[in-house]
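Target chain:
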Amino acid sequence: MTSDRFRPSRIYGVRNRRKEPRDGPACSALSNPGPRFAPVNPTMTTHQREHMKTTRFNSAATSDTASSPKLRTRRYQATPAEIAQALRTLAPQLKRWRYIGYDRSSATIHMEHDTPIITFTDDILLRMRGEGELTTVSGESRSRVGSYDFGVNARNLRAILGALDRVLKNVATAPPAE
């Protein structure tokens, strides 16, 4: 016989077969939330609350001043077409990565990455800008759904830029030091 505390109806608050009201912590917490469900910051203004509702925390981007060296903008001694070709051959070798295309007019590469468990798709855009003999590669990764990414987009950028560094290891230059 199954214990009452492990019965799914107790966990999900579904009415049981005994037709008596539930008592105990599960039911009382739902019917009387009390102060533990209060806002995290009670001094937050209405404007700040609205900003938190509309701001999405599900993207990451490279920059010259990123705190992590792995998320800094890269400079390669290669043309944008050579970098695009390297990524085209690299994508099938990486798990759950797809090379979507290369736009020559804007020098932008579009890739997709699927998360392993619930298969969410993230879009990765790598923008290239020629600076003399060097090509600067900056990237952005953005989730299609959800408000939080739990660090997945930063991992996407680290993975693809790290793989690109390994492929172009003899022509990669160090990220700029600040």
Residues 9-40 have pLDDT under 50 and may be disordered. Residues 23 and 29 are 10 Å apart (CA to CA).
